[in-house]
Amino acid sequence: MAELLIKNGFVVDPSQKMNGDVADIAIRDGTIVEKVGSDAKVIDAKGKVVMPGGVDIHAHVAGPKVNAGRLMRPEDKLFKSPNAQEHYRVEMGFSIPSTFKTGYDYARMGYAFVMEAAMPPLHSPHVHEEIHDTPIIDEAALPVFANNWFVMEYLKKEEIENTAAYVAWLLSATKGYGIKLVNPGGTAAWAWGLNCLSIDDPVPFYDITPAEIIAGLIKTNEYLGLPHSIHIHQNSLGVPGNYKVTLDSLKIAEGVKANNKFDREQVMHSTHIQFHSYGGDSWANFESKAKEVMDYVNTHRNITVDLGCVTLDETTTMTADGPFEHHLNSLNHLKWANTDVELETAAGVVPYVYDKDIKVCGIQWAIGLELGLYAKDPSRTFITTDHPNAGPFTRYPRVIKWLMSQKAREATLDSLKYCSKVIDATDLHGIDTERTLYEIAQMTRTGPAKALGLSHVYGGLGPGLDANVAVYDLDLNNMPTDPEEIEKAFSRALWFVKSGQVVVKDGEITHHGNKRTVWVHAKVRENHQVTRDIQDKFLKNYTLGIGNYPVWDHLAPNPYVIEVDGEA
Amino acid sequence: MATIRMKPVKTPDLFLECFCISPDVFAGKTPTEISRLEVREGKARNELGDFFDIAGSSGKTAEETDIFIDGDCSRVKYIGSKMTAGSVTVNGNADMYVGGWMKGGSIHVRGNVDSFCGLAMEGGEIQIDGNAQNYVGCAYRGDWRGMRGGTIRINGSAGNDIGTFMLGGTIIIEKDAFIHISTHAEGGTVVIKGDVQSRVGGQMVKGDIYVFGTIEHMLPGFKEIGTVDKNILGQSMKFRHFIGDLGERHPKKKGREIYGNLYLRAS
Ligand SMILES: [Zn+2]
């Protein structure tokens, strides 16, 4: 029996309402337990902060569009790829790191779980091969549904039961985790060179609106009782004035109650909300509507959000929102990749430089932080950068620094070329809120774990949970006055224990961990209609046979399967 | 001025990655310290002193430091890369990336250089007495930010992809060049004194190209607009003036579109 005792740290674990209590964390065989024997290996965490392993609810870390980004941006690796070190593999890249660098960097930050936020179902084998190739962290992937021919055809006729049977089949076939929506209807419209910029824009040919797709998929999700809610990238991303579309979309969830056995309370997770909180009607009068959006989120408990903070870096945007990437390319004239994924979705990739000398970028940066500071319930508001769209995930420690320190925010604000214009267009300058370590733990651990329906595995340090424990070089009673120390501490965990195994010591990788792939198996009644429809579409429309579609088991060799009884 | 003298004593089996051969790195170091600088041969770590005898002295700053390499560096990459001042002279050939990302100072190679000479250069001067392979003064693979300033002069001929994504500075090829000149350029000047085969100025937005010899195949995106007299590098000549690439986007200045200029010597 492998036993480990992390002694005397300041434990910050909102799942147990522990706010810096000095306590020991006992681990046996990968699980947190009440106590261990006297032979347990001891880690001295005296004077240091101890948190559950981080949970990232939304990042693009594996799959064809990530790889397209790597292929089209060799310059992303230039001078950012340290030579191989003793215990680990070569690491490459910055905004689109190699699989190894992805696993290592998350581990160094003390993260245990990452959700790949957009899996094109047809390419799910590729997604899983990359997940398998990414060491240490547990991962899951959300297949995209909101531009899928089956879904649009069923929902047009309001056939929730059929949609549910199809969703259940696809989750199993792709080893997916839940229902992702990206620009509902808009990506399908892109096949005609069009887009859906409001929730009432009809999708060409399908005679259905984004609003109907969103409402239908919420019903489907709760019908099945999936662990996660629908996870939506709304229409009109990145467009000045889009906050109205955002509020319209959020309102679709009004009055809907969560139905699941996983302790999840929300019915809609609205992702990278920063990109959806824009006012003005052009880039000239572009301004923040963070307050309006967050006021709504604050008063509606059945909604969760993640921030999608702009980090002011050179990065690579990638999304299943094909029309948006085309639009972005016409703004910056850099490289553009675009693809159509048969009956399911599309995607685009464009490099982007969030330049401190550009007014719009400064305003975007401020909006992300305003949202994080306006949130009344940090356990429903999660830290992300929509990696790599608004910035690389390796900047989470920097986002944490900005949220925890007004001094750090002001220093960055001062460094912007159009500082006074950014101050005029946002409220950030006037906000003196500083997030506490407890709130940061809610925003990066407890909150996202609960929203994913995974609070029985991740996001806490209570007995029975997976033993993912991060120790940071922060003294709760003597927090650093220099905010840079906060960023440094969260960038390089002193210790990180993943599933009971020490994988990081002093910020360096010591072990390749015991990586798992998490996916959902939803059991539904046999549905002959849907079975026939699937066979029919594979015969008539897909370019491959149905036998070659599902992800083979050997591509996800360490599965952690969540069983859902959709028949009940 | 102080000079560090290096003499190659061993030919690497693979290729040596010598980011350290730069006045900026050598300045203020003794020959012994310099000989201990890390160089990579594939994944193997070596010391510079394993491959070169190092003597002489360095200046306090890069500006006061000259480096003289007496011998063949055909398997030595990155000579003078990122340097900001001082000088490097190679009495022989050099491999890839001579003067890559260079900001100032001067480099003189008395033999030939391989590809990527003056890659993404920002300032300073590079003089190559022999020929250059491909990618003279171009952007790093994938990057859209090419050469911004400085001068590269190749006394012989050069291969393909010269001045790709160029934004500023001057490239002079005394003899011939193969294909792809100033592709995607948004500034800068390329002078080819000999002949070019084809693909001159493809997707060029701004900038100038001079060809003293012939272009075997012109790109269809260039349009002839007249004949001009120009004084270039001290020579007055009559050129046929083409603008392009008409298939590319072009910025406007005072309501008029700005094009790339291709000047082909009138026969
Ligand atoms: Zn995303």
From TrEMBL, chain A:
- Keyword check for Transport, yes or no: no
One of the Pfam families matching this protein, by short name: Amidohydro_3
Recorded E.C. number(s)? 1.2.99.5
Amidohydrolase domain mapped to chain residues: 41-504
Q: Which UniProt keywords apply?
A: Oxidoreductase
GO terms of molecular function: hydrolase activity, acting on carbon-nitrogen (but not peptide) bonds; oxidoreductase activity
Task: Please indicate if the UniProt record lists Transferase as a keyword.
Answer: no
Q: Which InterPro entries match?
A: Amidohydro_3 (IPR013108), Formylmethanofuran_DH_asu (IPR012027), Metal-dep_hydrolase_composite (IPR011059), Metal_Hydrolase (IPR032466), Metallo-dep_Hydrolases_sf (IPR050378)
The EC category is oxidoreductase
Stated name of the protein: Formylmethanofuran dehydrogenase subunit a
Q: Which organism is it from?
A: hydrocarbon metagenome
From TrEMBL, chain B:
Q: Name one GO biological process term.
A: methanogenesis
Q: Which UniProt keywords apply?
A: Oxidoreductase
Enzyme nomenclature, EC number: 1.2.99.5
Task: Supply the enzyme class, top level.
Answer: oxidoreductase
Q: Output the InterPro entries linked to this UniProt entry.
A: Formylmethanofuran_DH_suC (IPR017550), Glu_synth_asu_C_sf (IPR036485)
Per the UniProt record, which residue ranges are transmembrane?
none
Q: Does the keyword Oxidoreductase apply?
A: yes
Give the protein name, as stated in the record. Answer: Formylmethanofuran dehydrogenase (Molybdenum) subunit c
